[in-house]
Structure prediction request, 202 residues.
Amino acid sequence: MAIKFEFYRTPDTEGTSKKRYYARVVNFRHVSTDALASSIQQRCTLTEADVHAVLVSLGQELAWHLKEGERVHVEGLGYFQVTLKCPETKNPKDTRSRDVKVRTVRFRPDKRLLELMRNAETERSDIRPHSAKCPDEKLEKLLAEFFGNGEVLTRQKLEDICGFTRSTAARVIKKLVEEGRLKNVGARTHPIYVPAKGNFGK
Prediction:
């Protein structure tokens, strides 16, 4: 077992004579809550249904505390904390509370989790830094499964689940938006996509 990676050219050097690359994990498998529950059940005395219920409840409990502005520490995993965004302003008095939104939930791994990962092996992937082929039927299936887990889509996530390059992922999203299959529920500069009604099983 190893973490497969490939080298990708940094975006700011694309189309230039400079060549700088970074390593990125190449893995298109998605581990569901059911799969986690099944694996955890084998490590303890709880039933698979009990573990599944705990995992779902954990997510709900995290959300409740994060909405209170609290930082949550899950021992063995790490720290969860909300980050915010708002329009730039020269005078804070000009910004209303409704203009301040949640940007994301930031995660900082626990020391114990990092220690467990220290001996992880890495292995060069057979996949090269170009977009993987993803026919329409396969894309439809992958996105239906992705959205079925209640997730929201970003360009980065589409790269990960389909093996697309940055430019291909952006092009596919633009096409799906123009076709009315995806809609942006985030900011123009930080888009977040969800299925339009009647698409991808929604």
In short: The beta strands are 3-9, 21-25, 72-74, 78-85, 101-109, 122-124, 182-184, 193-195. The chain has six helices and eight strands. The mean pLDDT is 85. Residues 48-67 form the longest helix (20 residues).
